[in-house]
């Protein structure tokens, strides 16, 4: 940073006074573990204890749970660890611990007047690293929390005649994580279309980037649920966005990109009466590590996903031919998925799943494949969701990932292409490539036809049955890590693109090095979103 371009000490002091002393000089979270003025063995012990805790990372001004910060990793000198380097890396140099809307307004105006790079951080869960920025000033939203209001009938508070929602709703006033909000919905006997991962901010990047959910197949994406938003614009002006006020901004906030059009200080979301849930649990593995047989089975499941979604199933799963950790029992060549049916019965789930079971069951008669299909009923959504093991942020999972949205044609048109693509996407067992998949469809397909203010989400969402994330881990060796990144970008993702060339990628779970980001993250919505950005 050039000193002649940087605000003077007097400038910073005056600004700090204007925000009631909330300006923070940032230091790396693990700085206490390194020789220097911040060294503190007691604090270093705390860092080592909680380093992999997503909630704890979110409580730090520059704590990031994903992607993992590698510029200052914790060390345990008492255990013989040798300290390496500890720098800020690409993290903000200063942060404002905002607690009021006025703090945000003043921070934006100061940054604009001094031509400072400005970033926004709520929880620090951002694969594209949009909440970081070298030499930047950060609006840290973690402590900006002004309550959550429940509206049994939205019509009692709705002032926009163009909004016809009369069901329940929640107004979330601040940077509350989904883990903060879900218990409130459970108390009221309603469901919110929120993240499968409970860590991300409900009003932040998850929603503004689209937001996939275990309930998405039934009600639409997370962004489809937004009824109104309150926003601080780049000018410092505070506006309310809805179909009746700033409708273009309202549309852009519903899936057009996080932290792009302003700082969201409140959002109102639809809520739905809870329903009973029937879950079909799939576990498939290869005890003999027969890659060919395992991928044959995976191809059958992939080709069945459109049928399963159309039959009402939805849910998350993962698979690998060599997972870093066992997925099923002690097997690392395995696939597991939980498929839900709302307002259903086990008998109905068994009947609907039967055609898929008939396809894969013959493989269970061999020694190469072990298959288990079980069913369980829950009285409501919360009872099911609270049993799920995969709702905590993957802190410490250092690596590179990318994603692709797969439509029906990609999954069913060419069985040979699908099977060949899966072989490339899987990689070899020693690569430890793993896939996280989300089966959706349903209401996500139809919502934009019913709601014109949902029209600027990446169009590929409106026809994709599967959101497929592919990932590999780094080991800290530069040459190895660069090879891993090339493999994901130039091999695995290219196979996915050949399978679905006219699709795209979910911007919140994509490769930050994607050179085709405009097409893959925005598609045909880019031009209109760009116009809205310039006007806001």
Automatic annotation (TrEMBL):
Q: Does the keyword Metal-binding apply?
A: no
- List the source organism: Diplodia seriata
Q: Which Pfam families match?
A: FAD_binding_4 (PF01565)
Q: Which PROSITE patterns does the record associate with it?
A: FAD_PCMH, OX2_COVAL_FAD, PROKAR_LIPOPROTEIN
> Where do the FAD-binding PCMH-type domain residues begin and end?
88-274
Respond yes or no to whether keyword Oxidoreductase is given for this record: yes
Name-wise, this protein is: Putative isoamyl alcohol oxidase
Gene3D superfamilies the record matches: 3.30.465.10
Q: Which protein family is it in?
A: Belongs to the oxygen-dependent FAD-linked oxidoreductase family.
PANTHER family, per database record: FAD BINDING DOMAIN PROTEIN (AFU_ORTHOLOGUE AFUA_6G12070)-RELATED (PTHR13878:SF91), GULONOLACTONE OXIDASE (PTHR13878)
An example Gene Ontology molecular-function term: oxidoreductase activity
**Which terms are listed as keywords in the entry?**
Oxidoreductase
């Amino acid at each position: 940073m050039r000193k002649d371009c940087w605000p003077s000490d007097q400038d910073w002091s005056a600004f700090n006074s204007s925000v009631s002393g909330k300006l923070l000089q940032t230091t790396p979270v693990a700085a206490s573990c390194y020789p220097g003025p911040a060294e503190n063995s007691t604090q270093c012990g705390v860092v080592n204890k909680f380093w992999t805790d997503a909630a704890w990372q979110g409580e730090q001004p520059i704590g990031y749970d994903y992607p993992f910060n590698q510029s200052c990793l914790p060390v345990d000198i008492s255990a013989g660890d040798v300290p390496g380097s500890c720098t800020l890396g690409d993290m903000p140099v200063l942060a404002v611990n905002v607690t009021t809307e006025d703090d945000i307004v003043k921070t934006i105006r100061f940054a604009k007047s001094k031509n400072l790079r400005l970033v926004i951080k709520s929880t620090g869960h951002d694969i594209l690293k949009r909440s970081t920025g070298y030499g930047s000033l950060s609006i840290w939203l973690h402590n900006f929390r002004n309550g959550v209001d429940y509206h049994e009938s939205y019509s009692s508070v709705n002032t926009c005649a163009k909004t016809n929602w009369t069901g329940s709703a929640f107004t979330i006033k601040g940077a509350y994580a989904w883990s903060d909000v879900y218990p409130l919905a459970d108390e009221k006997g309603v469901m919110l279309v929120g993240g499968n991962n409970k860590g991300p901010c409900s009003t932040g990047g998850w929603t503004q980037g689209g937001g996939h959910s275990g309930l998405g197949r039934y009600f639409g994406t997370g962004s489809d649920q937004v009824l109104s938003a309150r926003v601080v614009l780049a000018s410092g002006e505070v506006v309310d966005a809805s179909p009746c006020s700033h409708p273009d901004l309202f549309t852009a906030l519903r899936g057009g990109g996080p932290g792009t059009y302003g700082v969201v200080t409140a959002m109102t979301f639809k809520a739905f009466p809870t329903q009973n849930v029937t879950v079909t649990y799939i576990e498939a593995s290869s005890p003999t590590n027969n890659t060919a047989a395992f991928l044959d089975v995976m191809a059958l499941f992939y080709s069945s996903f459109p049928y399963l979604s159309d039959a009402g199933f939805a849910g998350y799963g993962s698979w690998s031919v060599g997972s870093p950790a066992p997925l099923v029992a002690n097997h690392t060549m395995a696939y597991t998925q939980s498929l839900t049916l709302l307002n259903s019965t086990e008998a109905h789930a068994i009947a609907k799943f039967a055609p898929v079971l008939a396809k894969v069951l013959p493989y269970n008669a061999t020694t190469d494949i072990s298959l288990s299909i079980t069913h369980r009923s829950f009285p409501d959504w919360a009872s099911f969701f609270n049993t799920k093991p995969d709702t905590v942020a993957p802190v410490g999972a250092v690596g590179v990932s990318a994603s692709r949205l797969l439509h029906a044609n990609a999954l069913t048109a060419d069985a040979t292409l699908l099977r060949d693509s899966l072989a490339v996407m899987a990689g070899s067992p020693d690569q430890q490539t793993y896939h996280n998949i989300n089966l959706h469809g349903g209401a996500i397909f139809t919502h934009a036809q019913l709601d014109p203010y949902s029209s600027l989400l990446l169009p590929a969402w409106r026809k994709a049955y599967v959101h497929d994330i592919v990932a590999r881990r780094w080991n800290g060796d530069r040459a190895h890590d660069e090879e891993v990144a090339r493999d994901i970008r130039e091999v695995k993702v290219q196979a996915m693109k050949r399978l679905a060339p006219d699709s795209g990628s979910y911007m919140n779970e994509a490769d930050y090095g994607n050179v085709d980001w405009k097409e893959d993250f925005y598609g045909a919505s880019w031009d209109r979103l760009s116009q809205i950005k310039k006007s806001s």
